[in-house]
Amino acid sequence: MNHKKGTLEPVGVSLADILEKNHLAVPLKIFLLKKDWQKVAGEQIAAFSYVQKLHGFVLYIGVLNSVWMQHLFMYKQKLIQNINQYLEEAIVKDIRFVHSGKEKTSSIYSEKTDRKTSSVSIKNQVLSKEIVDKIQMETSHVIPELRDIIRKVRYTQEKKYKLIVKWA
């Protein structure tokens, strides 16, 4: 990205570069996939499943019961195709169906990480002022409509990282 400072250009020209530079392109796409899961998978499938996370090139899908898990397994390649078509690039190479055994959460930010001895909610993690300031500075140049979404994704990333470091 070679742009002169102080020159104005349409945000669409540099937005992709900004997202790539800040390692936010894939997390933003996964965030949008979670949000639009019903459109991507279909209403009936989305009623019994939800996107949990992307780890490498493997997408983890929570499924409410074993019957639907078997059904989705038969449509695995079609789901991968639909997901990658939605993401507009081949990010997902494989899908792992995980029996969640409970209703999916209404908020996509209320993911939980369970460990052997305790259960810790990401929502309860508090980020330091330095991290919040850093994220706000990194995203200050993004248009307001996307800025809040990107900040929420980055806050969630930092909270997850904090949990991983805490439990490692």
UniProtKB/TrEMBL annotation:
InterPro entries: DciA-like
Any Pfam family hit: DciA
Protein name: DUF721 domain-containing protein
Lineage start: Bacteria, Bacillati, Bacillota, Negativicutes, Veillonellales
